[in-house]
């Protein structure tokens, strides 16, 4: 008889789930989702609207019960210990859910009291300082700009000291500077050991994550570091630039070329950027054959390019749409 005990759970694994599925009204919104997240990771969820990102994230944290599948979050069972899991999760939803007619400080003190944080006033002061909100303590939350509101919402989320942070499109509609500052905070928190799951539609934010998952129509289509997701897609990309001044003439040439190329075998995507075209294909030889007739055109400059994450996601989405047809 074997005496080998089951391996002890790895304390650095915060989420480990397999085969999670969920349907609403007979429609499968998440289909057989499996993943593992390590402590201190910033894990990004990307995918088209309504593809099941929020539903997936909520199941991972025990906030929603899956129809099928199993797993643990923070070492606890997502099916039987969801209440205990919730006590350790900070959840920032898409909607600003603090009191608009309370001041910044009052909101933070309220949250501290609600969660039984010791010395709520001191905890609120610490949160104000940490988030660079000291000068705004007396300001009404409703009077803050979008970026500051998000910062306050983040402060309220981390005040009870969660081990896992769930951010659902936290920076939608926030300007680039405020988004950058918000992400600096997220990285600081992760460096201190907080694990972060974040859904976003911004490619630059995806690139700030340690790992990403791309979900479309309920299915996990890609997972890993940004570099590995791009490499696994196997896309070849070429940029074609119309030489000379950007004007109507150049614009027309780029548009006609885009129309022509997008009809050709070997060309899977054509995306205009000013008077340049970003052209991608999964079969490098077929792509080159499609471009060959244009290479001698002196009005055009060709250069091999690296595919971007956006190229990869659009390609994945198209492919999954085709498969569903
Ligand atoms: N409680 C619910 N009851 C019924 N349908 C739901 C429920 N929650 C989500 N859905 C549906 O499930 C699908 C996936 O929704 P989900 O919010 O997970 O997508 P998402 O990828 O987060 O979308 P977005 O990027 O727009 O936020 C949508 O069609 C949505 O309408």
**In which order are the strands of the major sheet placed?**
6-7-8-3-9-10
Instruction: Identify the CATH class of the largest domain.
Output: Alpha Beta
What would CATH call the homologous superfamily of the largest domain?
P-loop containing nucleotide triphosphate hydrolases
Question: H/E element string?
Answer: EEEHEEHEHHHEHEHEEHEHEEHEH
Number of helices: 11
What's the CATH architecture of the largest domain?
Answer: 3-Layer(aba) Sandwich
Question: End-to-end distance, in Å?
Answer: 52 Å
Protein name: ABC transporter ATP-binding protein
GO molecular function: ATP binding; ATP hydrolysis activity
Family: Belongs to the ABC transporter superfamily.
Domain ABC transporter: 15-242
Describe the overall structure.
- The protein has helices spanning 53-60, 82-86, 104-114, 120-130, 146-158, 176-191, 203-206, 226-233, 248-263, 284-291, 309-324; strands spanning 13-24, 27-38, 42-46, 68-73, 76-77, 89-92, 164-168, 195-199, 211-216, 219-224, 236-242, 269-273, 276-281, 300-305.
- Helix 6 links the parallel strand 7 (164-168) and strand 8.
- Helices cover 36% and strands 27% of the residues.
- It has a six-stranded mixed β-sheet, sandwiched between helices. A four-stranded antiparallel β-sheet has the order 2-1-4-5.
- The protein contains eleven helices and 14 strands.
- Helix 3 (104-114) crosses helix 4 and helix 8 (226-233) crosses helix 11 (309-324).
- It folds into two domains: 13-230, P-loop containing nucleotide triphosphate hydrolases (Rossmann fold, 3-Layer(aba) Sandwich); 236-306, Alpha-Beta Plaits.
- It has 325 residues and is an alpha/beta fold.
- The protein is globular, with a radius of gyration of 24 Å.
- The mean pLDDT is 90.
- The structure holds adenosine-5'-triphosphate.
- The site of adenosine-5'-triphosphate (ATP) has 11 residues, from helix 1.
- InterPro entries: AAA+_ATPase, ABC_transporter-like_ATP-bd, ABC_transporter-like_CS, P-loop_NTPase.
- Keywords: ATP-binding, Nucleotide-binding.
- Residues 15-242 form the ABC transporter domain.
């Amino acid at each position: 008889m074997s005496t080998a005990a089951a391996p002890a759970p790895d304390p650095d694994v915060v989420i480990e789930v397999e085969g999670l599925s969920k349907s609403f009204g007979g429609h499968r919104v998440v289909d057989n989702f499996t993943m593992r997240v390590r402590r201190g990771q910033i894990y990004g969820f990307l995918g088209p609207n309504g593809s099941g990102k929020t539903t997936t994230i909520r199941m991972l944290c025990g906030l929603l019960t899956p129809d099928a599948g199993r797993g643990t979050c923070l070492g606890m069972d997502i099916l039987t210990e969801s209440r205990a899991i919730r006590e350790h999760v900070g959840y920032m939803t898409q909607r600003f859910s603090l009191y608009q007619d309370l001041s910044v400080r009052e909101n933070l003190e309220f949250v501290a009291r609600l969660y039984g944080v010791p010395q709520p006033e001191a905890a609120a002061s610490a949160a104000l300082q940490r988030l660079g909100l000291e000068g705004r303590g007396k300001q009404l939350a409703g009077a803050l700009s979008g970026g500051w509101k998000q910062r306050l919402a983040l402060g309220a989320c981390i005040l009870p000291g969660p081990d896992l942070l769930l951010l659902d499109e936290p920076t939608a509609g926030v300007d680039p500077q405020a988004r950058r500052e918000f992400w600096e905070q997220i990285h600081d928190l992760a460096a201190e050991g907080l694990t972060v799951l974040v859904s976003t539609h911004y490619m630059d934010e995806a690139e700030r994550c340690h790992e990403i998952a791309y979900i479309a129509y309920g299915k996990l289509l890609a997972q890993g570091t940004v570099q590995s997701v791009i490499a696994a897609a196997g896309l070849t990309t070429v940029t074609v630039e119309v030489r000379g001044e950007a004007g109507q003439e150049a614009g027309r040439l780029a548009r006609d070329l885009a129309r022509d190329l997008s009809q050709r075998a070997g060309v899977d995507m054509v995306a205009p950027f000013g008077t340049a075209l970003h052209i991608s294909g999964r079969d490098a030889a077929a792509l080159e054959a499609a471009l060959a007739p244009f290479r001698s055109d002196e009005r055009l400059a060709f250069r091999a390019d690296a595919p971007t994450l956006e190229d990869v996601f659009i390609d994945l989405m198209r492919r999954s749409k085709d498969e569903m047809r």
